[in-house]
Design brief:
396 residues; alpha+beta; Arc Repressor Mutant, subunit A; 3 domains; 18 helices; 8% strand; transcription; Homeodomain-like_sf; DNA-binding transcription factor activity; Tscrpt_reg_AraC-type_HTH
């Protein structure tokens, strides 16, 4: 192969994580199959079968292949050499997806952990993305026109699945009725601040949907699902009387967490955290009986305390005058906004002092106070101890 082949190969592998395998002899076939087969059901990963398949190929075709475990790869020949691009996964599988697939294949569900780990080794790319990469690669290196074909060995082509799909259609109307009943209970749990039941109903909804979707998902699909849950939770929070700013701030946190998530579990965890945070804030709102403006200011302080917060900045944020803010805040809480902010900061500093080995300077910065000497002064005012003394007495 020419030098540009290996340069392009390295570039694609570095950018997309998509391996390009060049198989020239029996040892190459054996090595590839040994390193990529999880179970004998993947009969194309048997070296003898792969050699036979290679011998049957013409040099004008590119094959996209999906195997029995729904692993994808793209194969074509250059003279006597076989080039395999992949493996890659077109969908992300959850634990329940793996178990469902193993059941369909009549394999032991005890393999689900191995299947999850196996799939995690490969990059996630849509088939179209992978094919576009391959087309560009072929065009640059070989300057040749190929015919693109699909070979699907996955279980989804079996008649068993068609029968199963017919059964699912019959059950769908019942599923819809149950879904709305669960959704109603989910919203009621949030409105009452019942964290435990709200999360149980959320998990129940997710399990129910697993039964009525195709195997696998994508991060984008799960982000859309998270947005739907976020909307439902926002409506429930509005019904509970939570101030709109508190709702927006909590929603924003979940939007950011979902956008930054690198896998499905992180999105699920972010959803549950959002539900718990909303329930906590609803309970705080009901118990403290502050008006909506003060509740929103308190929420803002408690979640942005590490920023440079001033009374003037708070007043501007909430479209009121500094004097009105200070007087109303003191009337309802017994503290000035500055005093409340100081207490929030020192409370968080206490947690960091006893649970971490961070320096006093670092903790001071973490809670939004740049001057560590000033931080020590404020801390001592609240606790009659310096931060170092507090850590020594209370260190876990």
């Amino acid at each position: 192969m020419c030098e540009s082949f290996y340069t392009s190969k390295k570039l694609i592998e570095n950018i997309f994580g998509l391996k390009i395998n060049l198989l020239s002899n029996a040892d190459d076939y054996e090595f590839f199959c040994k390193n990529h087969m999880l179970h004998p059901i993947q009969n194309l990963f048997n070296s003898k079968n792969l050699i036979l398949f290679s011998n049957s190929l013409d040099e004008n075709s590119v094959f996209h292949i999906k195997d029995q475990l729904q692993i994808n790869f793209i194969i074509f020949k250059i003279k006597s050499d076989l080039i395999i691009i992949g493996p890659f996964c077109s969908h992300i599988f959850s634990r329940s997806d793996c178990i469902q697939l193993l059941k369909r294949l009549n394999l032991s569900i005890n393999l689900h952990t191995s299947l999850l780990s196996y799939r995690d080794k490969f990059p996630i790319l849509s088939v179209n993305e992978a094919l576009n990469i391959v087309k560009s690669f072929i065009n640059v290196i070989f300057n040749k026109i190929y015919e693109y074909k699909n070979l699907d060995f996955s279980i989804t082509k079996n008649e068993n699945i068609k029968s199963e799909e017919n059964t699912l259609k019959k059950d769908y109307s019942q599923f819809i009725r149950e879904h709305y009943s669960i959704e109603k209970s989910f919203m009621q749990s949030i409105e009452t601040g019942d964290t435990e039941n709200a999360i149980l109903y959320l998990r129940h909804q997710q399990r129910e949907f697993q039964s009525f979707k195709r195997l696998g998902t994508t991060l984008e699909n799960e982000r859309i699902a998270a947005a739907i849950v976020r909307t439902i939770v926002r409506i429930a929070a509005m019904n509970a009387g939570l101030p709109s700013l508190s709702i927006d701030l909590l929603s924003r946190d979940n939007t950011i967490a979902s956008r930054n998530a690198k896998n499905i579990d992180e999105i699920y965890t972010a959803k549950e955290k959002m539900v718990a945070d909303f329930c906590k804030e609803i309970n705080n709102h009901k118990n403290k009986k502050y008006n909506n403006l003060i509740s929103s200011i308190i929420y803002y302080i408690e979640h942005e305390f590490d920023e440079n917060i001033t009374v003037s900045q708070l007043a501007k944020e909430f479209h009121i005058t500094p004097n009105y803010l200070t007087n109303l805040f003191h009337k309802q809480t017994g503290l000035s906004p500055t005093e409340y902010l100081r207490q929030v900061r020192t409370k968080h500093a206490c947690q960091l002092l006893v649970t971490t080995n961070m320096s006093i300077q670092k903790i001071s910065e973490k809670v939004g106070i740049v001057d560590s000497n000033y931080f020590v002064k404020l801390f001592k005012k609240d606790f009659n101890l310096t931060p170092s003394q507090y850590r020594k007495v209370n260190k876990l």
